[in-house]
Design a protein that fits this description.
The complex is a heterodimer.
Chain A: E1 6-11, E2 14-18, E3 27-32, E4 37-44, E5 47-54, E6 66-68, E7 70-71, E8 77-78, E9 81-86, E10 92-96, E11 101-105, E12 111-115, E13 128-133, E14 139-143, E15 148-152, E16 158-162, E17 178-180, E18 186-190, E19 195-199, E20 205-209, E21 222-227, E22 233-237, E23 242-246, E24 252-256, H1 264-270, H2 274-282, E25 298-299, E26 304-309, E27 314-319, E28 321-325
Parallel strand pairs in A: 7-8
Antiparallel strand pairs in A: 1-28, 2-27, 3-4, 4-5, 5-6, 9-10, 10-11, 11-12, 13-14, 14-15, 15-16, 17-18, 18-19, 19-20, 21-22, 22-23, 23-24, 25-26, 26-27
Chain B: H1 5-15, H2 21-30, H3 33-41, H4 51-57, H5 63-76, H6 80-92, H7 97-100, H8 103-116, H9 121-130, H10 132-137, H11 151-158, H12 169-178, E1 182-185, E2 199-202, E3 212-214, E4 217-219, H13 223-231, H14 234-248, H15 266-278, H16 283-292, H17 294-298, H18 308-319, H19 345-348, H20 371-384, H21 391-400, H22 407-417, H23 425-438, H24 450-460
Antiparallel strand pairs in B: 1-2, 3-4
The chains are: A mainly beta, B mainly alpha.
Amino acid sequence: MSRPHGLLRAGYPYLRTLGMRRVIGYPTDVGWTDDGNALILMRSEGAASVRIWPIEDADLFTDDLKGFGSYGAGDGQMVWPVQLITDGEGHIYISDEATHRITRFDPDGQFVSKFGARGDSDGEFDGPTGISFDPDGNLVVVDSKNHRIQRYTVDGEYLGGFGSHGSEPGQLDLPWGVHVDELGDIYVADWGNNRFQAFSPEGELKIAVGKLGDGEAEFDRPTGVAVDAHGDIYVSDWGNNRVQMFNSEGHYLWSFRGDASLSRVARNYMLTNAMSNRLREMGRIEQEKYLRRPRSVRIDSDFRLFIPDYESYRVQIYQKDVVVLDRTQFAAPLRNPTLEVT
Amino acid sequence: MKSDRALVAHLMRRAGFGATPSELDKLTMEKTYEEIVDDLVDPDRFEALDTSYIERYYGGEPVAVHVGKWLYRMANTPRPLEEKMSLFLHHIFPVAWGKSEHGHSLYTQIDMFRRVGMTDMRAILLELSRDPAMIFWLDNNENHKDEINENYGRELLELFSMGVGNYTEDDIKAASRAFTGWTFRQPLSLYPNGHYPAEFEFIEDDHDHGEKTFLGHTGNFDGGDIIDIIVRQPATARFISRHLYNFFVEDEVQVPSWNTEPPRNEDAIRELSDVFLESGGQMRPVLRTLFNSDFFKQARDLKKVKSPTELVVGVIRQTGEFSSPTPGIHQFAITTLNGSLVEGPLAIMGQRLMNPPTVEGWHTGHEWIDSGTLSERIGFVESQFEDLSKPGVREMVERAGSLDGDPAQLVDRCLDLLGGITVSENTYDSLVRYASELRGMGGGEEGAPVGVHNLLQMTASTVDYQFE
């Protein structure tokens, strides 16, 4: 699918909330299956696993929770998992920055294989974080403490890489999330430099956007990055508790700060908790809708934007609403701003 | 060499959490003792730890996770006295997680201690009185103008500033009235989205605006006025000075005995109190005086028992295991109170950080030690130094040298590498005999010098290592 000439941006309404405390713990990333489930990667000190939760939401509470994986360094276990992606066959890949490896699970969550070892040579990791598939089905991996990007086959064969430590354009400082778009361009959340950068498949810098701050196109520790089929770019801005959205040229569009309502499971739970309901009434209830420390952002082929709301035990989902425009509906780019109204 | 290595090692153990051999090399080569003290009391000279870097790796709600993050800070801060003062204030203004189970507030309270601990006593007591964790711990959220709750007012005078015998029951009532309306905004409930921060709130309608008489002063006082009067009292200067002496210099008797038992070093307390009063309660001049004093330097020969926190942080600084974020630091702090089936070493040694036993805090000094806690302490140290792959352990073993030379010199090097510690004559002789017996042991895996490693481990496992 080629990218549209232009977009009529109708809005980006809030869709729904998934989960609550006790059913989802510290969601650090989210993926999805072909049969309508979210795969919510959960991580906190001493706990790590994947929760399987219907994207349409569910009434479930502590019984019948589905998921896989556990905390530990054994096969199929995780210590500090960072990101989760799925391939066309439903296999699940998870990076782990403590064990320095990528683990593959089958669609049922059973361990299949792993690769990776600690080091700074080609084909080694020091804290792998972001992972994404390139158009050829290879894995692009952020090697965070080596400040570089590496490419592997899904079986772990090293194919190459680029990147160096620093703050100059094109350099990286403890990078975190990554997304490879359908053209093969590589978008990286450059955590320590408070920016995101896009590279060609060969590693040449294309754009770099951001600096430290809380204004538009400013960041306080960007974590995840996602690009949709229109070329729009989303960056989770950890310290500013938001996700910023840019067009394909890196022009700031708007921010998502959170609009959460109660999930179905949360509604059911709260009906039996009189004290909690009273405390919410006494408190600053408006706070509840906002994002807290998002560590990732993802968008699926239906343009649903998933934000794992790390410190609020839930996933917030928005639905993109646009109309694709052709050349007759969207003027050519202007070099200068104008006050003329047409 | 610009400063004495043993003395600087003593300073860094007391004013911080110990220095590694490399750090001692650098400090003694580059700075005089007085310059090092100046650096310690002026932490702004050094860049603070990047909080986002810590939060990037360590996440979670249990109080053990918060304690783990604090341990990481203690072990890695370039501002050791700032962090040590946070621990000092936690000792003398103890608030326990167990009452509220609101770990978020406990952690932000420690942040507050870090922020104000090196300023002045007025700022410290004011922030303490506005702190939601303290307000809830001592019921000031239940202190209303028409229904006075004296809990905070009483402890502010008895345990936090002046000590028993320096005020009357009427003073407690007046202070309590002055703090009416000092409460916090209700944070959102734990369910469905986890803890939210609590924020101080002053409710003017719930404040007693009437006239009060406090320590001989009369006026329409509020809490800030009460603190102003408290900080000017010689009793406060003496009480805080004695706390500082007890924490940094020499184990005192326990606090409840202070109104009947004189200080161990009356002259030292008087010297610190004078600086406190002359400076208006400024902490930096008081601390500078303390660390530059003869009584502090001479305290190197006094056996001051490390708190469990000082022991654990000192060890992990030396082993280097957590010199960058590494999984597992929270395990030192796991307690059954947090729903776990097991206890971490801090709890077994008797110090659940962020969860002290009472408003009096922990009984310190020799009361840290009984047969069970001593066994845990020694076992902990031995196990932490067991793994030769830990960078600090490997560095120390490499620097210690071989067993081929004079055994006494080898023991001296081990003592120096472990932070310039001193041991009793009996212990020293035993270590030298052990070093002699170890001669002839071959290299271990990958050529690791097993014998030297054993000696180092044995030296760290002595009772003497348990003293600061």
